[in-house]
Structures are given as C-alpha cells and as structure tokens.
Design brief:
- The complex is a heterodimer of chains A (312) and B (275).
- Helix content of chain A is 42%, strand content 21%.
- Chain A is built from 13 helices and 14 strands.
- In chain A, the strands form 3 sheets. In chain A, strands 3-2-4-5-7-6-12 form a 7-stranded mixed sheet, sandwiched between helices. Chain A has a 5-stranded mixed sheet with strand order 9-11-10-13-14, sandwiched between helices.
- In chain A, helix 9 packs across helix 13.
- Chain B has 275 residues and is α/β, with parallel strands linked by helices.
- In chain B, helix 1 runs antiparallel to helix 10.
- Classes of the chains: A alpha/beta (312), B alpha/beta (275).
- The interface between A and B is medium-sized, with 29 and 33 residues.
C-alpha cells in the first residue's frame, strides 16, 4: 500500500486553492518546511508570512488578517500552536469567531525520535472544548486534500491535524468528505471500531485479524472529532452493540471521550478505548512507540474482544 | 470624518463628561475597572475626536481606521467614549456588566465601535499587525491603532508582535501605551520594571514618542506625526495617572478593579463638577 504523510496533501492542496482564491494567506512559526506550508511560500511569497518562532503572534496576526477578508492558515507543529498559543486560539480565534484555520503537523507518537516534547497527544481534547471551532484529522493524503478544501470553503474557526509519518492511502478521490459526517470504511456487525487519522488503517488491520476468529468488525473513519457524527455513533451502537475507539491521542478528552459522551447520552453499549493512557511519549521509531504504547492492530483486537465480551 | 480645527476646550469638557459617565457606569454595575479607564480618557478622545477616520452611524464602514483595545478591562472608558461620540445611546451604559447587555465586562465587538473582544492581556498588538498586513496587501490607507496598558506589556506576546511590526515595516500601526505606572497589585515598576521603556521600543525598531497622556495638545502633536514616518511602526508612550481626575483614586492600585459606591461616586462627581 502506498504510504504518504497527510501533511503533503495539505501542502499541495493549499497551492491549488491559492491559485483560485487570492484571499488565502499562510502564516508560519518557522516550521513551513515541516508542515509543508513551504509549498505555498514558494508559490505565493507575497501571501506567506514566516513570523519567526512566535506562535502567539502567528495566531493573533492571523486573526487580524481576517479583518480585510483574508483567509489565514496558521501553521506549525500541533504542540506549539494548540498548547503554546492556546489563549490566542481561544480568545482571538474562537471567542472572536474569526475565520482562521489552524493547521498543525507533528501530532501523536508517530512524530517519533524527537520525543515527548514534540509529540502532541492532547490537541483534540483542548481544541474540542472551545466553542465555535471544528476539529478535523484526515485519514490519508487524499482525504487531507479534501479536508483542506473543506476547512477553507467553510467559514469559521477550524483546527486540522496532519501527520508527519507516511500513512497508508486507503481512500479514493471519489469518496465523499463532509465535515461532521463519518465514513464507513468496512462493514461489520459484531463491533464497530471508530478511529481517526493513522489509527484507521490499524483498525482495518485489526478487522482482518478478527475476521480469522469469525468476528465481523465494522471500521469507521471519524475524520471530524468536532462536531462529532452522533448519528453514525448511534447507528453503530444499535447495529453492532459494541464500540472501540482508536486514536493517536490521550484517552482523556479525545475522540474516545467524544464518542463516549454520545453513547452515554443516547445508546449506552460496551465501549473500549485504544489511546495513550495518561502518559507522555518518548524517543523511538514510530512503530516501536505505537507498539510500546499499545496503539497497534493487536491492541485494537484485544479491545474489540473485550467490548464484545461485555455485551453478554 | 474630515479633520476639523480642533477646539481643545471642547475636548476637555468632553473628558470631564466621559469621566462622569465612567464612574456612574461603574457604580451602577457594582464592579469594573476605573483606574485604567480614567487614565486613558484623553487618549481615547484624541483618537475618536481627532485622529481616526470613523463613522458612528456606520461602525463597519470600510474606510475606517481601526482601534484594538488590548487592555480590554477598560471597557467603561471605551464604552463611555463610544457613547459620547454617538455610537449608541448613553442610556445603554446603565446596562454595563448586566445579564443580557451588549456591554460585556471586557470590550466586545457586539458593542458598536468595538472591533475586537479582548480581556486576556497581550493579544491586541498581534491582531493590529494582522489588520495592518491586510491593509498593506490591498493598498488600503486604513490605519491601525492599538491601546495597551503598561502592566500589559509585561506579557511576552507584546514583544513578539513588536518585533513583527518593525521587521515587516508596518508603518500603518500606531501603538499607544497608557503608562499610568500602576497595575493590579502595586506600582508597575516595582512589580516588574519596564524602564527604560522608550529605549525598549526604540531598540525593537519603533519610532517612539513620549507625551503627557492627559495633554490634548501633546497627544494631537504626537498623533500628527504618525503617518509621516515611513518604514517604521509608531509608538506613543503616554505618561498618565491611574485614576486621573479623582483625587482619592489617583495612583492607587486598589482602584484598578473596584467600582465606587454611591458615596464615593458623589464625592468623585463633586470633584469633577468643580473642574
């Protein structure tokens, strides 16, 4: 299977969109090489601002650029924008409801060797508690392009996480992408594995393992963490009776929590979470880390069996 | 608005009226921030009454200059000024901080004339820079003003923005520091010394002017210079007095964030009426 980082899809798509819409501007905290915002920099230098290592300034300036109708994309590593500039995202972007798109690469354990300081494992949690903003994590490079288009064409604050690590390409150009509408990647009736980002391909692999044990697992690509697709979650709960969430993020507050909130309020069924369990990461290769922190297909298999067992 | 021959005496009269409105508004609300509101009155009047292009009948007019009030807690000063210039009826000041009112505790853009919600300090200058970048890209003449407190510039984000404005030669940005020397828990320069403040701004690449921030003539002269200096952002360090105009509030940190009661209000109004 072809492996491409989702950041590449973002970087290429903003160049295409930049040709069509001269109001698109990109701001960077001196990481445009890593976020792939450099493609836009090279294509449209007059609409690109490297504001230096000053994330608070990047977000505030982006909010100001909306005054003349510009559509600013603020780009850096997830940890630096969502954590360092949190107050600016909260006040300047969300409370003021400005049309700023915060797009971050380098989240999750797959950041790898750089270690825990750069491995943002809390961006979904801290972004989704803010009013007005939508939170998106595309599954592969094809979806990253569609998501980039969607967050720019829809008015309002957006947060999008892209990957540094190459991810398997599992969607097609013809697949739909609608913010807030999850996609069924694989049908199944015994358990639903609801994942986002790189964990969707782990879920597909888990479904193959489960198939050998006569367990029929459904796999959902929940590319939008906020607003969460309640309808899809309820449907999965009713039709499969057990849910497993899978995310490259802390268990506290992320995709799993968002799903659990829906289940608790509407259709309580057994649910297990595959996520990082209240700990920081460390240096290592992405695969070593995913294994050590229990984010592999085998971990999803275990969680699925446990959830199914709890149905009884 | 076109520039007119400015009558300083009428500005002074307006300042007294706005100070009264600030204190009455705060007394009715029972909470809020008098000290920094009173110190900024002449600055605000100089902007709305002299320097800025703006239209109270059409607050979103595309030709307007922008003011980002980064010290968002001086909402009583900002709202009283906007009401005085006709953005909304003065009567509405009575709703300040009340449930359902547009007049939120910290400045909010649902109030006509307020561009941006603030309240967390150190945000405004980056936003002002962003507006200025936009104006430059579109070759628009709109100017951008950013009013900051002195305690506020202890926030590191202010200096991130200060570097950006000079590096990118944002000569359409005018920062104004309301240097009233007092913050919530005491004298600013005892808590964390800002001096040499003018040198700091100069070393960050800003054209720096110091004025007495209660002297209309000096403020207007400084504001007149803004727009004539090419390639550099412009900062006015306005030396002011916290709680200006009310003797028992002047220079007192306890009046940073406390409303006067009715007796204190009466005393304050008496003092203002005798001016």
């Amino acid at each position: 299977m072809e492996m491409i980082p989702t950041r590449d899809g973002f970087g290429k798509e903003i160049v295409e969109l930049g040709k069509l819409n001269e109001k698109i501007v990109v701001l960077s905290g001196d990481l445009e090489d890593a976020t792939r915002a450099e493609y836009f920099r090279d294509a449209f230098p007059e609409r690109f601002f490297n504001l230096g290592i000053a994330e608070q300034d990047v977000v505030g300036t982006a909010a100001g650029l909306t005054f003349h109708g510009f559509i600013p994309l603020a780009c850096s590593f997830a940890v630096f924008l969502t954590n360092r500039a949190y107050d600016m995202i909260r006040l300047d972007v969300c409370y003021n409801n400005r049309n700023v798109k915060v797009v971050c690469s380098h989240a999750g354990l797959t950041v790898g060797e750089d270690g825990a300081s750069a491995q943002c494992l809390e961006d979904f949690a801290i972004m989704r508690v803010l009013p007005n903003i939508k939170v998106i994590c595309p599954v592969d490079v094809i979806e990253a392009k569609k998501a980039t288009r969607a967050i720019i064409s829809e008015d309002g604050p957006m947060y999008m996480r892209t990957s540094r690590a190459p991810l398997p390409v599992i969607t097609k150009d013809s697949d739909p992408f609608i913010i807030g509408k999850a996609n069924v990647i694989r049908e199944g009736k015994d358990v639903s594995i609801i994942g986002c980002g790189m964990m969707v391909s782990e879920a597909l692999s888990a479904a193959e393992i489960l198939k050998k044990e006569n367990i029929d697992a459904r796999v959902i690509n929940m590319h939008t963490i906020k607003p969460i697709d309640q309808e899809m979650i309820i449907k999965c709960a009713k039709e499969t009776g057990a849910i497993v969430s899978a995310e490259e993020h802390q268990a506290n507050g992320g995709l799993g929590s968002a799903i659990a909130e829906v289940l608790a309020k509407t259709t309580p069924v057994p649910m297990e979470m595959v996520a990082v369990n209240d700990t920081f990461g460390e240096s290592g290769s992405p695969q070593e880390l995913l294994k050590a922190y229990h984010l592999k297909d085998v971990d999803i298999v275990k969680a699925a069996k446990k959830a199914i067992e709890r149905k009884k | 608005m076109t520039k007119k021959n400015i009558d300083i005496d009428s500005l002074k009269t307006q300042a007294v009226e706005i100070r009264k409105e600030i204190l009455e508004t705060l007394q009715l609300a029972g909470s809020g921030h008098p000290g920094g509101s009173l110190s900024a009155v002449e600055i605000l009047i100089s902007l709305y009454g002299y320097k800025m292009n703006h239209n109270p009948q059409s607050p979103e007019w595309s030709g307007r200059d922008y003011l980002i009030v980064s010290k968002g807690h001086i909402s009583p000063g900002v709202y009283a000024t906007l009401a005085s210039f006709g953005y909304f009826p003065k009567e509405e000041l009575k709703t300040f901080r009340k449930f359902g009112s547009r007049l939120q505790g910290h400045v909010h853009h649902k109030v006509p004339g307020v561009e941006f919600n603030t309240g967390s300090l150190g945000h405004g200058l980056s936003v002002a820079n962003g507006i200025a970048f936009g104006a430059k890209m579109l070759n628009k003449p709109n100017k951008v003003f950013c009013l900051m407190g002195d305690g506020e510039i202890q926030e590191g984000s202010v200096w991130e923005a200060a570097m950006t404005a000079s590096h990118h030669k944002l000569d359409n940005v005018c920062a104004i520091v309301d240097y009233n020397k007092v913050q919530e828990n005491g004298p600013t320069n005892d808590i964390k010394n800002l001096e040499p403040l003018a040198d700091k701004w100069r070393s960050f690449g800003w054209h720096t002017v110091e004025v007495i921030g209660h002297n209309f003539g000096a403020l207007i002269k400084a504001l007149d210079q803004f727009g004539t200096i090419e390639g550099k952002p412009f900062v006015i360090i306005a030396h002011t007095i916290k709680g200006k105009g009310i003797s028992f509030m002047e220079g007192e940190s306890k009046w940073h964030g406390k409303a006067p009661n009715s007796e204190q209000l009466a005393e304050a109004l008496k003092e203002l009426n005798s001016e």
